[in-house]
Amino acid sequence: MPEAISTTRERRAIPRSRLPALSPQALTLLAGLAFTLFYNQRFWSTVLGAEPPVTLADWGRLAGYGVVMTALHVVVFLPLVNRVSVKPLLSLLVMLAASVSYFTGHYGAYFDTHMIDNVLQTDNREAGELLTPGLALYLLLYAGLPALVVWRWPLQQRSWQRGLGMSLLWLAGGVGVLVVSLLLSYQSLSSLMRNHHELRYLITPGNAIISTGQVMAAGEPLPDVRLPIGEDAFRQASATGTPRLLVMVVGETVRAADWGLSGYPRQTTPRLASRDVINFEEVTSCGTNTAVSLPCMFAPIGKANYDECYIKSHESLLDVLQRAGYRVMWIDNQSGCKGVCDGVERYSPSPGNYPALCDANDCLDGVLVEELKQRVASIDRDTVIVLHELGNHGPSYFQRYPDAFRAFIPTCDGADLAKCSRETIVNSYDNAILYTDSVLNELIGVLEQQPSLATALLYVSDHGESLGENGIYLHGLPYAIAPDEQTRVPMAWWSSRAFERAAGLERDCLAQQASQPLSHDHLFHSLLGLLGVETRIRDPEMDISQACHSSRQPATQPYLANEGR
Question: Which region, left, alpha or beta, applies to residue 165 given φ > 0 means left and ψ of -120 to 50 means alpha?
Fold first, then answer.
């Protein structure tokens, strides 16, 4: 008798959930509804902007879109759920949906394959800048609490045979609802998606799942050794016998819209404006992120014929220059060269060597001036040095310049852009450009002080940046829908008279190209031309200096567009 009383008390002590027990399939349906209603704010705001509802029929059409989205997610997830897997799976999906929803909503990001590539290639420093208190609070509300509900929700007890039958029944019902809702919404939905291709990248969490799958499926094995290009390359001798030194500065996330030399009302490039530089006003990037643009800039096939597999499996411009007899160095103050510099000398500034310019992890771009000073004195042959800047990489623009360059105030002094006004974000961004202007001016100053070398400098940014225009921040949008702020970039050229004589370069002729529409596609061929390198892979029509050389030996073979393919 005492044992019975004790057992009864124990049972009474166990709290019973007030939530009704659900099948794994019903819990998945609830999650699908939650995704549609609470994790797709950017999708719905875009749809409402494109098709503002006026009549009751309009609202019914929007409800139909919601049914399609919910049914689609449920049909995809149902084959994966059972009593054991449903809670871990839904917890992971909630975490994914919350993360994607935060970045689509707060920064206007689109999760296509290029964005997934960015995520996979992001280093600890870049990731750390995005881990803000705002993100933590959002994940707590939209991931932590929902995941807790999922784990506390009781599930119905069924035999595996009955569970399998219910799964098949639910799947058949889900497919039926999806088909019917698609048929009813097809005309309006197909028109909407046709006119707004970007919407497919906003359907959360399906956007991240599908894009990740596409990236993984497209991962073709690369050759152990990159395939050669420009094997016939040779360089024409310096016309004066003086060794040539070209410094190419690859800017990071600098847009033409805020570049003082290109007509920006605010003077962000005062030092370059006082120098005899050629500013190219209409330059477009190959991509909207570094992972695409940087390799593309150094490849013979640019945006017009972009082929990621070809670029990754073949040598770059730097290999061709090295084969032609140039010494080539890459000095990196960023997160790497994305394979571009694999075949040449590579260096990275050590923060410990420059305490005034570096903290424990990062260095200001002024460190590249010091690196150039150390190496330039020993140069006695034709040389190319590529300096890869930290530049204006966001969202922590305020960390890209020293206090002395805090000219435009007030500034956004945090990584959480949602807490800053657009004015302060732009001010911080422009201060970073002001610092880049100073760095470039100092680099030119170093080159001017080399009487034994024929020196030149080319600056070009890899892609631009959105600073809140139309609610979009940062970069990485699909190129087809990317705004000019992300695709138009600054490019500037400076050359000493010694370099112009050594290269037989007519500067006034080159200056005439400044207002012409150009792109990253021209870089590969133009740098070969400016450096006097002949090879059949150089396209004379893409070389902006082609008509600007007083004397040039003809190429031994005609241009071959498909070499290496």
Answer: alpha
- What does the alpha-carbon distance between residue 312 and residue 552 come to, in Å, rounded to a whole number? 32
480 C-beta neighbours (distance < 10 Å), count: 8
Find the DSSP H helices in 452-503. Answer: 484-487, 497-503
Q: Which pLDDT score is estimated for 6? A: 46
CA atoms within 13 A on the CB side of 563: 22
Single out the residue of 388, 374, 479, 386 nearest to residue 436, CA to CA. Answer: 388
pLDDT band, residue 165 (cuts 50/70/90)? confident
Give the number of other Cβ atoms within 10 Å of residue 392's Cβ.
Answer: 26
Q: Which helix (H) or strand (E) holds 346?
A: strand 345-347
Q: How far apart are CA 383 and CA 330, in angstroms?
A: 11
Are 462 and 489 spatial neighbours (Cβ–Cβ below 8 Å)?
yes
Query: To 5 degrees, how large is the angle CA 39–CA 291–CA 197?
Result: 45
The token pair at 441 is: 């001016």
Q: From CA 550, how far away is CA 537, in angstroms rounded?
A: 22
How many Cα atoms within 13 Å fall on the side-chain side of residue 148?
A: 6
DSSP class of residue 549? B
Amino acid at 119: V
**pTM of the complete model:** 0.85
- Which of 197-211, 225-239, 360-374 shows the lowest per-residue confidence on average (mean pLDDT)? 197-211
Helices (H) and strands (E) in the chain, counts: 21, 13
Say what the pLDDT of residue 559 is. Answer: 53
Q: Which tokens hold the place of 322?
A: 């090295």
As a whole number of angstroms, the distance between CA 278 and CA 126 comes to 33
Q: Name the residue with higher pLDDT: 123 or 207.
A: 207
Whether residue 263 is predicted with pLDDT greater than 60 in this model: the reply is yes
Average of per-residue pLDDT across 383-395: 96
Half-sphere exposure of 431 (CA within 13 A, CB side): 25
The C-alpha atoms of residue 325 and residue 383 are separated, in whole angstroms, by 9
> Among 7-21, 116-130, 156-170, whose mean pLDDT is lowest?
7-21
What DSSP string runs through 313-329?
Answer: HB--HHHHHHHTT-EEE
Query: Rounded CA gap, 469 and 483, in Å?
Result: 9
CA 324 vs CA 237, 388, 527: distances in Å: 11, 23, 13
Q: In what order do the strands lie in the sheet with 244-251?
A: 278-280, 491-495, 454-461, 244-251, 383-388, 327-332, 345-347
Mean pLDDT of 476-498: 95
pLDDT (mean) for 332-338: 92
Reply yes or no on whether the pLDDT at 441 is more than 80: yes
Contact 487, 424 (CB under 8 A): no
Phi, psi of 456, deg, nearest 5: -155, 160
